[in-house]
Amino acid sequence: MSSVGTSGLVLNEKLIFEHSDPGRKGYSLPALDVPEAQLPTALVREEVAGFPELSEVDVVRHFTRLSTWNYGVDSGFYPLGSCTMKYNPKVNEAAARLAGFAGAHPLAPEHLSQGALELMFSLQQELAEVSGFPAVTLQPAAGAHGELTGMLIIRAWHEAQGNPRRKVLIPDTAHGTNPATAALCGYEVVSIPSDGVLSAERVAELMDENVAGLMVTNPNTLGLFESQIKEICEVVHAKGGLVYCDGANLNALMGIARPGDMGIDVMHFNLHKTFSTPHGGGGPGAGPVGVTAALEPFLPVPVVVREAGQYRLDSQRPQSIGRMRAFHGNFGILVRAYAYIRTLGGAGLKHASQMAVLNANYIRARLEGTYHLPYKQRSLHEVVFSERNLPNDCHTLDVAKRLIDYGYHPPTVYFPLVVKGAIMIEPTETESQEVLDEFCEAMLAIAAEARDNPELLHQAPVRTRVGRMDETAAARNPRLKWEG
Ligand SMILES: *Cc1c(COP(=O)(O)O)cnc(C)c1O
């Protein structure tokens, strides 16, 4: 810490890891009161690694400072579409930290784990109620993992009928995890061109006895409700196939419509999208899966069941696809989702969906005249614009980078792939009208800058610690460790 400038800012720019002071330390250990042990020489380092030597104050300030350079849903509006970065009520955190939950050992016997098992059983029932599926597993650790679980169940069901079949139909608006999952399960992916929404006719053209099923997202990643979903399910079922629903967007439907009532056979939930619980940085999340009664025997083991007022883990299921995860899923996330559902209740969940849809439509109405809207059907919880109206060689990436200068995390960009230069905005139900208005003002100001001063967009961001990245170089030549 050599240069203490006149403003504290100079100091703040320095990374403490570059300022080691030999002999400085941040711990004080008690004197050794047991005999000193000799490590095998093969395990002893020849040289001590060059870690920085720092005091506790140095380290705390370093990490606290870094945390303020980050952007999170607790610090501002985070309109990433399809990801549902909503504010998570802190009461969920308090519940997850209760010692009986946070400290529970996953190998504790059933009679000492009745509270945890009851919570899991109740959450299964609540998710079943919201989705319209009679049975739910909580095991999968994320949405993609739920997809894998669901598609393995579909495969196991077909195998039990004597033929696993070869192909899976997936619309061109799908999240990349859908085709990846189908391929992992050994299926050939057949992409269905859709015009915003899927038509039952198109599905019928492609559906035959070699198709194991259809993977569909509803509402889809354009934020549009698949209005022919019932006919589509009938078409698939008529040829002996099953329908998988990617339920990542359930926050547009919960309390209003149930995928299980639409003819869907299997669906995953993203607890970290629909049912609050933190999300990002790679997790942990949770991707429970709901299934019809016919598919229940294939659920992963163990399944939480209730018998004579006691809860237990049932592993005696001969048709099960087996275990999908060690222990019982991301239990802390399950507690948070349970707390969220119990706090809101049925009416509150419905209200959350209504507000999510209202907020997305509010943004659509304010920006539609300025940004190009490729699909005119009614939006649900998210709205997708394109870069088509942007002048002066300004593109989606420029708008996203300029938004950072205005203090916002950018929306999802360049997805879904069917929209050239997609700008996908999902406000979620937790934002107020003032926040939405400020964001829309920023988007409109950026559109005006694109017209009058496009260089501002091309150079953005200019108000951040780090300027625009060379994304190609970052991908080809990543520097993944600190270099002093
Ligand atoms: C987020 C998402 C997924 C994947 O979920 P993860 O929890 O990130 O694995 C799949 N499909 C859609 C539509 C999504 O939005």
Automatic annotation (TrEMBL):
Q: For this protein, what reaction is catalysed? A: N(6)-[(R)-lipoyl]-L-lysyl-[glycine-cleavage complex H protein] + glycine + H(+) = N(6)-[(R)-S(8)-aminomethyldihydrolipoyl]-L-lysyl-[glycine-cleavage complex H protein] + CO2
Pfam families, per this entry? Aminotran_5, GcvP2_C
Q: Which domain of life is it from?
A: Bacteria
Q: Does the keyword Membrane apply?
A: no
Cofactor section: pyridoxal 5'-phosphate
Keyword Plastid belongs to the record: no
Where N6-(pyridoxal phosphate)lysine occurs, the residues are K273
For this protein, the Enzyme Commission number is 1.4.4.2
Q: Which InterPro entries match?
A: Aminotrans_V_dom, GcvPB, GDC-P_C, GDC_P, PyrdxlP-dep_Trfase, PyrdxlP-dep_Trfase_major, PyrdxlP-dep_Trfase_small
Query: What do we know about how this protein assembles, alone or with others?
Result: The glycine cleavage system is composed of four proteins: P, T, L and H. In this organism, the P 'protein' is a heterodimer of two subunits.
Report the family membership.
Belongs to the GcvP family. C-terminal subunit subfamily.
Q: Function, please? A: The glycine cleavage system catalyzes the degradation of glycine. The P protein binds the alpha-amino group of glycine through its pyridoxal phosphate cofactor; CO(2) is released and the remaining methylamine moiety is then transferred to the lipoamide cofactor of the H protein.
Q: Which NCBIfam families match?
A: PRK04366.1 (NF003346)
This chain belongs to the protein called Probable glycine dehydrogenase (decarboxylating) subunit 2
Species the sequence originates in: Desulfuromonas versatilis
Q: Which gene encodes it?
A: gcvPB
